[in-house]
Amino acid sequence: MGLSLPRRRDTDAKELRRAFAEFATGVTVVTVGGPSPRGMTANSFTSVSMGPPLLLVCVNNEAVMRQALLPARHFGVSVLSAAQEAVARHFADDSRPAGLQQFDAVGWSPGTTTSVPLIDGALARFECEKWRAYDGGDHTILVGAVVGWNRPPVMDAGSTEPGTSEDALLYFRGRFREHGLGAEGPPL
Question: Alpha-carbon torsion 52, 88, 172, 61, what sign?
Fold first, then answer.
């Protein structure tokens, strides 16, 4: 017996979007390389598993990026810092150039494992092999097996070691925000 979706409630899409926007998310740029490199700003990203290491991103079925991701074997995810709001806006702009030219406006480097474009200065950068793709209504849920990653040295709260204490770029209530170590509580 298959699962059936609950009866769709008559809902105002704008109000539903506002309710979803109450959940603050990080901001990433998802990328593919190959003959037609592409990048896209995404806030629908999460870690899934440590064993094996998996992460997921959700991409709108109407997005050009979905057409680039589906045939690709590898993709990258760069977690943006608060200083990279312009990068987020660039990859959210549908009028940016296509192909490798869209990366000319930002610092980037190829991943060491897969050669996918990764955004320089990001708080964390992941290289993934596409593991699974699932239907998610008007989005496609892509799960990637993490095959490489890096992050800059980070100054943990209370640490005396040199490093960076860059704030994260967040998306909350339809706007970019920043959040940093200043409001950090004890580790979980």
Answer: negative
List C-alpha distances in Å: 107 to 36, 131, 177.
Answer: 18, 28, 21
pLDDT number for residue 12: 79
Query: In this predicted structure, what is the pLDDT of residue 134?
Result: 96
pTM summary value: 0.85
Per-residue pLDDT tens over the stretch 102-115: 999 999 999 999 99
